[in-house]
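Project standup — Tuesday

K.O.: blocked on the structure for the chain from last sprint. Re-posting the sequence here as requested.
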Amino acid sequence: MGAAMKPRPELLDRYELAGSEQVGFPIDWSRVFCREAPLAVEIGYGGGEYLCWWAQRRADWDFVGIELPQDCVLRAVPQFSAAGLDNVRLLRGDARYLLRELFSTASLDRVLMQFPMPWPKEKHAKHRVYSPEFATTLADVLRPGGEFELVTDQEWYARETEAVLGAAGPFSVVISETGPIRNFHTRYERRWEKLGRETYRVVVRLEKPAIAPRRILHEEMKVMHLSQSPDEATMRSLPGRRGGSNGIVYEVKEVFYGEGGWFLYLVASDDSFSQHYYVRIGHKKDGRVLMRIHGHPRPYYTPAVRFSLEDLAAHLSVGVRSA
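H.V.: unblocked you, prediction finished:
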């Protein structure tokens, strides 16, 4: 990993926001940026070069980039620092869910997505930007008159996005063009231009707002009191245990014993919003046996995460009560 991939820790602290560690959801972005300003999101910012250019060009706006790989954060933050930017923050995670959970209704002026994975197989259609779930999210978080922009090298993807989002629904199509003239081209765009590939751009405007159902619970994360300390045989039998229904499920992946007690590695899913996290079972000096979420960053507290704690506690002891 080169020098550009090793930013100083203070740069990560400055630009990367641990979404699940924030107080209150959706996030109050005016508190994050310490001002009231138009707010825009780039989904899948890649190396961050376009987001850096955009934030410099619109210093009167605030920007949030959402990506999955940590490498993208490491590539982006040195650029932001070199440009002296203070109007950009980065979130790491799946934008299909973070956009819905971390941004309040009518809070965004623009959402941009450039060259996303097209997900051509029909079984992956739910990942596309014109899926009903994502369309509802956009219709919630965009302000009336706010816009969603898609830039892609796949013509079919652009046409289907235009057809679905521009149908008799909450959006109207304001731009649909081939070979758009853009002031800044990403490295992928420059590469594909050399190969003679076309670029397609679709912009839709929100006309009729909607409300998207949110998953993050507005309550304290539970600490479970076990009536007794589980024995080793019971703990070793937990890997593979699953529970849940109606799109809310969890599974115990691993169990191990460490200093201070037992640790469980779990995955929980609310529909297809999956999270991985640790649960710790430990003893207090007063004899109590507690089970709680362990480590940072914590998972977002969703119904599936809550259910995993309740179900495991019920399985491990009798007469469980929550703190």
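K.O.: great, moving the ticket to review. The radius of gyration is 22 Å. Residues 4 and 78 are 7 Å apart (CA to CA).
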